[in-house]
Amino acid sequence: MPNHLTIPFKKTYSCPIPVATRDYIQNHTEDHPDAYIGDINQWKALRDIGTGGVLHADRINFALNYHAQLVFILAKLPPDINLEFSYGHAFDSPSSFPVTLRSIAFERAAVLFNIAALYSQLAASEDRSSQDGLKRASAYYQNAAGVLAFLSESALPKLGPFVDLENTPSDLTEDFVKSLEWLMLAQAQECVWQLAVADHYKNSLIAKLAAKVSSLYNTSLLSIRLAAADARSALPPNWIPHLETKHYHFNAASQYRKGVDELEASRYGDEIRRLMIAEADAKKAFNIAKRAGVAQAVISDVKSLLDVVQKDLSRAERDNDLIYHQNSIIPPGLRDPRSVIGDDSIIFGEMLGWGAREAINIYNDNKKNLLQEKIVEPAQNLNDEADKILQSLNLPSSLEALERPVGLPPSLLRKAEEIRLDQGPTKIDVYLDDVQRLSRHVLGILDEAMDILDSEASEDEAARRETPMNRPPSHEANQELVIKQQRYRTILIQAAESDELVRRKWEEWEDQISELTRNEDELEALVPSSTVSMTGKAVSTSQTQIHARTLRGLLESLDDVRRTRDDLIVRAQRRAESDDIRPKVLAAAANLEHKIEMSAVMFEDVSDNEFAKYDKFIQGLTEGRKKQEEILSSIKSTNDAFIQSRKQDPAIKDREQALQFLDLAYSHYREIIRNLDEGLKFYNDMAGILTNFKEACKIWSGARSREARLHRNMASLSIRDRDNASDESHEAPVSTTSPLRTGTRKQTTGIPTLSSADWEVQELAPPPIKRAEKTTKHR
Fold first, then answer.
1. By three-state DSSP, how is residue 58 classified?
2. Which family does it belong to (predicted)?
3. Please, which residues have CB within 8 angstroms of residue 362's CB and are 6 or more apart in sequence?
């Protein structure tokens, strides 16, 4: 039985390439499908021989040729031409159900996977007892790794946009493919290590090669643990134990070779330390392999190494005990605390470490910020920018006035229906009242907090008139709380200014927005009708129609960009909702068990890898921005030509202005609603923050009051001591400082300083001030 793992082929099934391709060409192109009969037949023939399933070196060129053709096919056809491709999971049983997707990109990814599988199987079939066989096997494994790397960087990203996350085959996910890539590299490196051993290279070099093999197997192991649960469960039961065994085996082999190197350099104590590490890792490898039923060839390899290491370790310890005495002995319980107390007795043994918990919390907070700041807000800004430009160009009103000289455009009817169903004016009035009520409420909380501080200050002044106190006066002691209060009050003032801008905007546009609540007949009566004048030069009329059609096409393209952007936001939000980093943090924590103390910093690599999932959404926004800029630039130039070419009919002009005014009223309605939604959220959040601040003021004032009472009690006690002393004999001097007073004063000075975390409350950045009218910002 071989001691290497191979990648099985993804089984595929026949698909109706001729029918689907002919239908697509017939219905979506200007060409006739008969013109491409040869191409369609060639595609079908290439697929029959290029999708894998046969172990022979000649099949490599067929598969590479088919993949190359798929690249060019995807340049000519979209991924979805209603042609279904079916592939089974590489590690599923033949009787399991395949995954069927309408995506040529899926076909390409599966073909690449099978090319990598072919290379891996060719490598495993080589005779590695000879040097030539080892070289060929290493080259094949490197080719397999290269194909998997190419699959990961080139094919998988293009598969994602056309396949939902839940429908993506688990063996074509990033983590799964990367695990196979690292496995192929590990086995290629193992062949190189075997060559070095056969050629009697220096022990130091062989040790480095073995360490690299161990590292690659471990990287493959980590990647598969990060893969989805269904991907891991599809693997053979001995697959992961095989990787663990190889990792420990080659780490032991590396330490053994380093030990031999230390012996040759007469560093006998270092030799023993190396051999002890090698023995421990070899035992781990052997135990895992035996317990999990790893291939017998792997078990034999590990057992042979363990026997050699134990033999050399016994010799080295015997020599050292008798002759050298160069090694210090660290009690085992220091290096391995678990060995002292056992797993069952560890305090909080079942609890997730604080470092891991903090890493999860930090990731969730950063994920929320990333979604809002890098995706949602930029997308909203792009939409606002497009709306602003279209409004300045009087679009689409001018176009709709020309296209529909009578009646109302469907887009305007939809907007009016939205406001009518929402009871827009009433909704805005209710929101404005709610915002004003919440504004007064949060300001009242802040005033109550200041009343608490003022009351403490008055109490402090009264206490000072009765008894001198060795502590700062209130106006100094509460300075940090007062500064914090001023900062909060500034935020509320800025928010009130923003509220006033929204209110003034509503007062300015209330009548126009209310007009949109009318029924269709009443609304149509507000918009003048027009008829297109048929007089004038034919050339001008023709040019106007050409520019109008071009403009309409550009506006539809802009709508497509916006719909794509909205869909991208929804997908990003769904990803964030289902995104749970906890399992991967737990897996990483398990690998860090030897580090008893763990901090959140140790999981930064895990967080970075997880955040990479959102790069495609940010990239999608960037691409959408470029497309939008190009389309808007074309709209501006085409609109200029449209205005210059058409007749300035007064009736059309009046209709354009009426339509534009109503469209602008709808835009202001949406903006006012958005501003008020943000205002309600702001004040609700602020209420919680200021309630915490008020409680902090109450706790601080209470501590100051208790301290003042202690000072008064101490003063009364001192007066009684002096009165008693005057009645006593004057034979011995009496101390004027009571020990009780001194001790109590030390105790009462334990109030936390205002810089202490005890007084910390949640901070909130001030809301951006809304600028007037056209450049209104959102809270």
1. coil
2. Belongs to the palA/RIM20 family.
3. 600, 607
